[in-house]
Amino acid sequence: xxxxxxxxxxxxxxxxxxIAAAQRLVKSGFNDVRILEATPRSGGRIKxxxxxxxxxxxxANWIHGPSEENPVFCLARQYNLLDPEALTPxxxxxxxxxxxxxxxxxxxxxxxxxxIEDVSPAQEMFFELLSEISExxxxxxxxxxxxxxxxxxxxxxxxxxxxxxxxxxxxxxHLSVISNLLKVECCVNGAHSMDEVGLxxxxxxxxxxxxxxxxxxxxxxxxxxxxxxxPSGLVTYNQPVRCVHWNNAEARNTSVLVExxxxxxxxxxxxxxxxxxxxxxxxxxxLFHPPLPLHKIHTIQRLGFGTNNKIFxxxxxxxxxxxxxxxxxxxxxxxxxxxxxxxxxxxxxxxLFGFTVLKxxxxxxxxxxxxxxxHESEYMxxxxxxxxxxxxxxxxxxxxxxxxxxxxxxxxxxxxxDPWTCGSYSFPGKGCSEQDLDNMREPLPPKAxxxxxxxxxxxxxxTHPCYFSTVHGALLSGWREADRLxxxxxxxxxxxxxxxxx
Length: 502
Ligand code: 6YU
Prior knowledge:
With about 500 residues, the chain is an alpha/beta fold. The chain has helices at about 15-25, 70-80, 85, 90-95, 115-135, 145-160, 170-190, 220-230, 275-285, 295-300, 345, 360-365, 375-380, 385-400, 435-440, 470-490, and strands spanning about 10, 35, 50, 55, 105-110, 115, 235, 240-245, 255-260, 265-270, 270-275, 290, 305, 310-315, 325-330, 355, 365-375, 410, 425, 455-460. It has 3 domains: about 10-45 and about 215-305 and about 425-490, FAD/NAD(P)-binding domain, CATH 3.50.50; about 60-100, no CATH class; about 100-205 and about 310-410, Polyamine Oxidase, Chain A, domain 2, CATH 3.90.660.10.
């Protein structure tokens, strides 16, 4: 049993990073920890919903890289939340570099089913390029600023050599495959276009071994288990924070005054901010008083935070193969290699790259998950469910060439219009470097003036140096900031402002 620490810690946000920070602090003897959460629920971007009698993940879907190094996997195993298959050593050892080997079915906008051999040359070129980009060091001057620009120019150069003997139709097909894969990458990165993703910083993201797996009972099972280990009443729900006053005279300079939307004011020794980067981008100037240091503001602006939404579609019977894991929709007219649609209102649906298949069928029935990123996705959120259903129906009929195929029901996520998230997850924008990820997690006051104690700490997925955009990155960031406080009290046992007994 750890000795008690009476310092007051306020955590803003009850997503996985806030919960992880609270859990570790409480276990280490901090007995005055409070979480303030804007919404009526825990979990943030981990959100399990229902479509009829089926469980669907509105937010995070997979444990990326479920193996020993992944704390989300270890916790899920400990709480008995995974299928036996996910626990096998073979599954954990599989290293797929973030791209699970799902069996694809490919359809074109002229209503034809394509052979995999027809699309594989372009797929191979694309994945070769991605792995070259991942190896790029983030410091040296690159010939192009963004992943998108690099891919476009390299495809043009390599296609001229590799496909010089192909006929016009196959060349067109190859280029539409590349456009489709750029749209897939927009979803993976949560970016509007790969032209926004920094070339040098792309390789900062690290994958873990293990074949991505899901939670049969829903990702929120993890949240429920973690929450059950926290003292009851630790979270105040429906309590948005309006402003964090640091270096504040009213709060004895060393403490922080947390002001809530309803006027409640809480004096704390330390505050851990876990709000999403999308929220910070929009509200940092009012959320902090005095304002954040300039270098932190610049980092918040440079880092990217975009939208990736899902459109779940249920059918009475499948029009895809039984072993199919992913369905790609290729537009015949996309030979110019682009991941943005020309006319948002009329053709937003062209940004949807296709669907993943929810498996196993015995659990989910015939449910597909459509993926759409960027401004097209944000526009989709503004449409009525009927309009989205209509567009999806037309799309599927066109690509399958079957005018009778009709969805039973749909459900779409709307992360951009969630006022407490403002998008989906972070990515390293153009001009970002490792320094930006250091700046994101730097506490206040900044190191330079740390004659004063730690006041404001930063956790959340966007603060993890190599697992940003993931649940395991968020969880580790919460533990990291809890550890920062724990070691602060171990090193400074006689901090006057704290009533630490350590
Ligand atoms: C993963 C996956 N996954 C799909 C979709 C989404 C995300 N992720 P939270 O937002 O949870 O908590 C903050 C809380 O703060 C929240 O409750 C707010 O209400 C509250 N708050 C805000 N303002 C407040 C205020 N003022 N006062 C009080 N409270 C306030 N991750 O591992 N597997 O399959 C997916 C996916 C549609 C939206 C995902 C996935 C991301 C995770 O969901 C996310 O990182 C964590 O849940 C965040 O937790 P948190 O605590 O930080 O914030 C280069 C390169 C890059 C390559 N990247 C590839 C990675 C692939 C990522 N893939 C994701 C894909 C899917 C499908």
